[in-house]
Amino acid sequence: MTKVVHIVIVKFKPEVTEEVKQQAIRDVIALKEVIPEIINCSAGTTYTDRSKGYEHGWVVELEKEEHLPLYAEHPSHLDFVKQYKPLFADLIALDYVY
């Protein structure tokens, strides 16, 4: 069966506190509890200097391609985006199947 991986890496704006950054990580991981299409989720902070300023990222795994729009449009995901996207200086998202 084909699975979908949704990867997001972000640069927060300079004024965003470390506390808020860590809360974003906790909040994205918590999406697994409320969005049934998520089969796995991880998030964290880079520990190397290879990230070109992108300091936080998360990976969301979904069961099949049809689940990506369900995840993207889920009210809890939309709430997360509404709360945190204004705090990002930049964001890269990548989706692939395997």
UniProtKB/TrEMBL annotation:
It comes from the Eukaryota. PROSITE patterns: S_R_A_B_BARREL (PS51502). Pfam families: Dabb. Residues 4-96 form the Stress-response A/B barrel domain. InterPro entries: Dabb, Dimeric_a/b-barrel, HS1/DABB1-like. Homodimer. This is Stress-response A/B barrel domain-containing protein.
